[in-house]
């Protein structure tokens, strides 16, 4: 027998306010046509004044717990991925923990920008399957609207706010690739690229929060290769291939990156879950939000083989293959 981290529930939360491309065209020199053609994005959600990352995360966590049929007290580990925490410290995870009324176990944040959810899932999986914790909330939550330069058309059109969460439970499984739960995860980073996508502020450097800066073309150039490499690692580790995948749930940065990755990997278009048109790039929240949409639409079913991947600032990138 082998210990596996099995997904019991998923939930998402999007702020009420929707900002369309047409509205953005009234703020910066852009058009709906340019944004749709280059990115596939049609709209994004933006947090209300006073609504912070932990508010979004808490709503997603409650939705995931309800989906799992569990109480907050059943959770003993919270791993929250964000690059836009409420405060420099304490972690946003402890704000969620307090919001849920949990006083046992551990809660902490993980920072890998857009790869954050994949890094958080792999971290929680390691902590559950080591036997130290029993049930985890793994959350991706972001308010990128707070770190965008709203006068820079090359970045402000790309991102949105939101949160998604999954509940994982440690379970004994037979120990084959047919098991439910996380089957393999592969994480990578290469700090040589740290200035290609970064925020130009921080507590130790400028004592300000700063704004997101990106060499979009450079990010694009590296993205497909990095994504496909780490997915091939997951295939090699499990013996599964593109035809075995039921759902490919990539980080939702750009429709062109998603489509090019699926084509290069040989994954059929109808297996790709895409939400970038509605949510834009919600960084660490994009994968769990996409999972929550696929589950709510009845597409994602127990036993499905699900492939997750992400690439983001750092660069960081990673993949997780799991059976729902
Ligand atoms: N509206 C209109 N024109 C624009 C806009 C805009 N919003 N933004 C840029 N342009 C202009 C540029 O100024 C440029 O004009 P020029 O030719 O006169 O200089 C022209 O459009 C082309 O610009 P490029 O940057 O070459 O456009 P490109 O086709 O590369 O698309 C984009 C830009 C969409 C940013 C693309 O490079 C991309 O998607 N990169 C990856 C970005 C990404 O996904 N980042 C997130 C991944 S990691 C993470 O998730 C944090």
TrEMBL record:
Chief place where the protein resides: cytoplasm
Region feature ACP-binding, mapped onto this chain: 252-256
Enzyme Commission number, as recorded: 2.3.1.180
UniProt KW keywords: Acyltransferase, Cytoplasm, Fatty acid biosynthesis, Fatty acid metabolism, Lipid biosynthesis, Lipid metabolism, Multifunctional enzyme, Transferase
InterPro entries xrefs: ACP_syn_III_C, ACP_syn_III_N, FabH, Thiolase-like
A cellular component annotation (GO) from this entry: cytoplasm
Family per similarity comment: Belongs to the thiolase-like superfamily. FabH family.
Name of the protein this chain belongs to: Beta-ketoacyl-[acyl-carrier-protein] synthase III
Organism for this UniProt entry: Blastochloris sulfoviridis
């Amino acid at each position: 027998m082998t210990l596996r981290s099995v997904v019991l529930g998923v939930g998402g939360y999007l702020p009420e306010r929707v900002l369309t491309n047409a509205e953005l065209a009234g703020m910066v020199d852009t058009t709906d046509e340019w944004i749709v053609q280059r990115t596939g994005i049609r709209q994004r959600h933006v947090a209300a004044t006073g609504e912070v990352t932990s508010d979004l995360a808490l709503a997603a966590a409650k939705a995931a717990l309800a989906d799992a049929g569990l109480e907050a007290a059943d959770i003993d580990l919270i791993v929250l991925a964000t690059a836009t925490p409420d405060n420099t410290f304490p972690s946003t995870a402890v704000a969620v923990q307090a919001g849920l009324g949990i006083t046992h176990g551990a809660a902490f944040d993980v920072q890998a920008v857009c790869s954050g959810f994949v890094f958080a899932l792999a971290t929680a999986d390691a902590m559950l399957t080591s036997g130290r914790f029993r049930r985890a909330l793994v959350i991706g939550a972001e308010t990128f609207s707070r770190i965008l330069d709203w006068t820079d058309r090359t970045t402000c059109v790309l991102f949105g706010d939101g949160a998604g969460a999954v509940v994982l439970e440690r379970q004994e499984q037979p120990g084959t690739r047919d098991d439910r739960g996380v089957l393999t995860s592969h994480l990578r980073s290469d700090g040589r690229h740290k200035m290609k996508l970064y925020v130009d502020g921080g507590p130790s450097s400028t004592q300000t929060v700063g704004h997101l800066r990106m060499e979009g073309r450079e990010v694009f150039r590296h993205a497909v290769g990095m994504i496909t490499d780490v997915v091939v690692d997951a295939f090699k580790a499990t013996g599964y291939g593109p035809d075995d995948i039921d759902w490919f749930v990539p980080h939702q940065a750009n429709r062109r990156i998603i489509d090019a990755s699926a084509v290069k990997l040989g994954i059929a278009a109808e297996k790709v879950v895409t939400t970038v048109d509605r949510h834009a790039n919600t960084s660490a929240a994009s994968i769990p939000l996409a999972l929550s949409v696929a589950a709510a639409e009845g597409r994602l079913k127990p036993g499905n083989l699900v492939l997750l991947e992400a690439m983001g600032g750092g660069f960081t990138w990673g993949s997780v293959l799991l059976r729902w």
